[in-house]
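Task 17 of the worksheet. Students: predict the tertiary structure of the chain below and write it out as structure tokens. Keep your answer in the requested format; marks are given for formatting as well as content.
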Amino acid sequence: MPRRPERELRAIRKDLQRAHDARHDRPGGSYRRRRLALAGAFAVVLAVAGLMGNAIAGSSAKRPARAPREVTAPMQTTGQTTTSRSATDTKRTPPAKPRPVVSRLELTFQEPSDPDIATGRTALGQPVRTLATLVLYPSERSPEGAGTAAHASVRRAYPLVIFSQGFDLAPTVYGGLLHAWAKAGYVVAAPTYPDTDSTAPGRLYEADIVNHPADLRFVLASLLAASRNRHSRLYRLINPREIALIGHSDGGDVTLAVAADSCCELPHIAAAVILSGAELSSFGGSYFSHGSPPLLVAQGSADTINLPACSVQIYNAAPQPKYYLNIPNAEHEPPYVDPGPMRTGVIRATVAFLNAYLKRRTAALVALDHGGLLPAHETLTSAPTAPPLANTTVVGTTTLTTPVTNTFCPGA
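Model answer:
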């Protein structure tokens, strides 16, 4: 094949180079043209930025810079001394949270009754038993000290405790216990049963106790109705599924009847506390035939009004869960009405018991059951039967113990 002339070969090589440049954007091709265009655009941007900077600088030069402003609090003058305090030196104090307190409410319920046991009549002449009831409940105190009730729509419903007083004793005598239970987060209601309070109008007639279980049931129903009434101060304040009964002496007899006697029992009671009480045959029925709610029995070992054997009888017959609180050297009323270590121990034991069975907080009760600290040498047990009872006297560092001799409960 004849060889092409050198000039023709150079022309072919140039054509091939131009085609290659077009495909790979080599320098000298379209890539170089794009690069030049970008460089020109960048130069324009720099020029515009320079002009804007000069304009801003000129404006700043015309108006002097403003110094940082310091805000000071109003001048406070005391005598001849004047002080000024910068706002930057004071920190915002968050508003104080309301403090929990116990509020008080006095209610009167009129229970329809037979004329022979009535204590009064309505405006229409219907016979009724009048039941004045003291109610203590958790509330909030504002930082200024005024008691306030939460709005009903956001109120918290608390467990309810109904307390029954002893014969010839006003509910207010037990103020230390009632206040402690309310402060622990319970609505506490203490009705005054007819013929039991010497400070109330009327007579003292202990035999009327046979009507008191029905009175207690009526007070409970009235409180639950008030909790459903939007015009009541108790509206939405009571949890109807968390109800406990507590009673002392004759009130303990009434409490036990409503909690565990077939004559009068209510099935939805969550817990019951009997403070120096007894089984009372006058109510009729039978005790513990249908079981009972969790039970706490408290008894002073030196009680000559309600003998320790009466509380032992209750405890040993009750099904578990049950607890027996022995208060050494305690008589019938002091552990529940007099300030001091004994009442403090009763408060600790009862609050721990209520918290365990109404709020499902068992730690404190378990600790007391396993030898927790009680201030008057009380002992709490959950054994199947009550332990041997004894009077314990502490003299200096020596503990003297004498056994309790009475083993029979004559009945209330």
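Marker's comment: The chain has one domain: 99-403. The domain at 99-403 is CATH 3.40.50.1820 (Rossmann fold).
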